[in-house]
Every structure is written in C-alpha cells, then in structure tokens.
Amino acid sequence: MGECCGCGKTLDVAAMQARHRRVLWIVLLINLATFLMMVGASWYSHSSALLSGALDNLGDAATYLLSLLVVGAGVAAKARVALFKGVLILAAAVAVAVQIGWRLAHPQVPLFESMGLAALLNLAANGFCLWLLTPYRNDDVNLASAWECARNDIFEGISVVLAAGLVALFGTGWPDLLVAVALLVVFLRSALRVLRIAMAELRASRVASG
C-alpha cells in the first residue's frame, strides 16, 4: 500500500512537470514570434514604446527557456535561475533607457497606424500567455517568476496601445516616449521583486540544507 501511494505521488509530480514544460514551450514560442513582429513594427513606425515591448518579449523568451531547463530541479537551482531572470529584466530596463536617450536626441513622430496594430496583436498574445500561466503561478518560484513576466506584458501591451492612440490624437511623439519611460519603471520594479523572491528562496534552501 505504501509503495502504491509513493508511485501515485511520483506520477502526480511527473504530470505536473509535464504540464509546466508544455505551457512554457507555448509561451516561449509566442514571445519569440511577437519579438520579431515588434522589432519590425518598431523599425517601420519609429516607436520607442514598440521597441521596449520587443526587448521585453525577447527577455521573456529567454526567461521561459531558463524556466524550461529547471523544471523538476531543486529549490536552490530554481532560485538561482530566478535570480538570473531578475538580472535579465534589469538588462531590459537598461536597454529601454538607452533607447529613450536615443529618441530624445533624434525625435520623430511614430506612425500610429502600424504602431497601434502591432500593439494590439502583442497585447492579445500577452493576454493568452498570462491565461496559460495563471493556473501554475503558485506552484514554485520558477513558474511564479514566469507569471510575473507575463503580467508585466499586459501592462506593457495596454500602455503601447494607449500611446498609439495619443500619438494619433495629438500628432506628436511625446506619448510614445512617456510610455517607454513608464515601462522602464515597471521593468525596474519587476526586476527588484524577482531578485528579492529569488534571494529569499536561496536563503531558505541554504538553511534547510544546513
């Protein structure tokens, strides 16, 4: 009887890990596709906000790939990967800051039509990713940090759609830059949150092993 119970628990864990891998593969591929779409749209429309979103999608794709690599690993390994994810989000924030500086030095009014279309497509994709990850957000630190990235993407998507509308309304590029600055703040806060959670998990794992 005890052996059967043990087998049941093993099967449950294996099934959960299989679900984690499946959902992470899906959101990884979606983010790679939206990254390519957003980069092209950003170049065509001269939008800092779109490029910020594209960099965010690329960082998310890397995050989901790292998450895939540690599915089934121990708490310490997952915490180390979460720590690296925080660093990746921080790197995206730096890239956004550089892009904002470039646009301030070379001002242009974005093409709101292509900007808005790309933003809407990206928002739809981000919403689907969040929906896929939400049931697993409390399973472990690995999926929690992946869900954190997806939740940030919703804010980013809504903000870029709003920026496109304001660019169309006012005929100026300041809403695009304003949204890029807002995304920079979101990235910084998210990076600090993920880093804080990862450090707490690392400390807990050291105490448990010690």
UniProtKB/TrEMBL annotation:
How does this protein sit in the membrane?
A: Multi-pass membrane protein
What's in the GO CC field? membrane
Predominant location: membrane
* Listed Pfam families: Cation_efflux (PF01545)
Keywords per UniProt: Membrane, Transmembrane, Transmembrane helix
- State the superkingdom: Bacteria
Q: Which residues form the Cation efflux protein transmembrane domain?
A: 24-202
Where is it located?
A: Membrane
Q: Which residues cross the membrane?
A: 23-41, 61-79, 86-105, 111-133, 154-171, 177-195
Q: Which GO terms describe its molecular function?
A: monoatomic cation transmembrane transporter activity
Q: Which GO terms describe its biological process?
A: zinc ion transport
In its UniProt entry, what is this protein called? Cation transporter
Q: Which organism is it from?
A: Stenotrophomonas lactitubi
